[in-house]
Design brief:
With 256 residues, the protein is of the alpha+beta class. The protein contains nine helices and six strands, in the order αααααααββββααββ.
C-alpha cells in the first residue's frame, strides 16, 4: 500500500498547492533536455518580433508544452493554476520568465508557417529517432499473420463567443476564433462555434500517425478517406506489411 501524505494548514496565509500535472511536465522537460531537443530549438529555429520584448521562441514553446500536458480547458485556467509556480516551471526548461498571457496571444497571432514547419520537423525527427517500444504490437490471425490496428477518432470542441461592443470610438471587432472555428451543431447553446479534430493513432502503443483539424463540423469523412495513404505510412513507419483500420466515429470500432 502506498503511504499518503496529508498537509494541515493552521495559518491564514495563502499556500497554493502544486498542480497535479507539474510532475509530468518536469519529467517531459527532463527528457527534452536530455535528448538535446530544447537546445536544438534555441539554435535552429528563429522567430523574432519587436513586440515580444525579452522573450525568446523557447519561452513560448515551454508555455505551450505545459498547457498541453496540463489538460486545462483554457489558457486562462492554465495560467491561474501556474501563477504561484511560474518561476519553477520555467526553470524546468532552463528559462527564468514565463510569458504573459497577452504576449503569448500576440505570439500565436504573429507566428508564421515557416517557423511552425521548422518546429514540426524538429519534433518529427526526434520522434522517428526514438523506439520507445520494442515491438509495435498488433493482432495475430490463425495463419500467424500480424496485423496493426490504427484507430481514427473524431472529436468536437465548442467555444463561446461573447457579444462585442461596436461604437465609433472602438476599432472594428475581430475574432481570432474565426480562423479555426465556425458555426456547427454541438447540441448546446446559441452563440457557440465548433472546431472538429480527427486523430489517427496506433491502437496498441497509442503513437500518433496524424491529426487533422477543421472549423465547424469539419470534413472528417474526407480526412478519413486518406486511409490508403496512411496504410503506406504505417508500412514505412513500422516496416510492416499488413495494417487494418478502425474508426470510432460512426459506426464505432468497425473494421475498414
Amino acid at each position: 500500500m502506498t503511504p499518503s501524505k496529508v498537509t494541515i494548514q493552521i495559518t491564514p496565509e495563502s499556500m497554493p498547492s502544486v498542480p497535479s500535472w507539474m510532475g509530468e511536465v518536469a519529467a517531459f522537460a527532463q527528457v527534452l533536455t536530455h535528448k538535446g531537443l530544447l537546445k536544438r530549438i534555441q539554435e535552429q529555429v528563429r522567430f523574432a518580433c519587436a513586440c515580444f520584448g525579452q522573450y525568446d521562441l523557447i519561452d513560448f514553446v515551454a508555455a505551450l508544452i505545459g498547457y498541453v500536458i496540463s489538460g486545462e480547458p483554457t489558457l486562462q485556467a492554465f495560467y491561474e493554476q501556474l501563477a504561484p509556480w511560474a518561476e519553477p516551471f520555467m526553470a524546468l526548461f532552463g528559462r527564468n520568465r514565463l510569458p504573459h498571457r497577452s504576449t503569448l496571444s500576440r505570439f500565436l497571432a504573429d507566428l508564421d508557417q515557416p517557423t511552425v514547419e521548422a518546429l514540426r520537423m524538429l519534433f518529427q525527427k526526434d520522434l522517428l529517432a526514438r523506439k520507445p517500444f520494442p515491438s509495435p504490437g498488433g493482432l495475430f490471425d490463425r495463419a500467424s499473420g500480424q496485423w496493426l490496428v490504427v484507430d481514427v477518432d473524431g472529436t468536437r470542441q465548442a467555444a463561446r463567443q461573447r457579444a462585442l461592443p461596436q461604437t465609433d470610438a472602438l476599432p472594428a471587432p475581430h475574432r481570432r476564433f474565426d480562423q479555426v472555428c465556425a458555426p456547427g451543431y454541438h447540441g448546446r447553446k446559441r452563440g457557440e462555434v465548433i472546431r472538429t479534430r480527427t486523430v489517427i493513432l496506433l491502437a496498441h502503443t497509442h503513437q500518433f500517425l496524424g491529426t487533422f483539424g477543421g472549423p465547424g463540423n469539419g470534413d472528417y469523412r474526407g480526412e478519413c478517406a486518406t486511409r490508403k495513404s496512411l496504410f503506406w505510412l504505417s508500412r514505412r513507419f513500422f516496416r510492416h506489411e499488413t495494417s487494418c483500420f478502425t474508426r470510432s466515429i460512426l459506426p464505432r470500432h468497425a473494421v475498414w
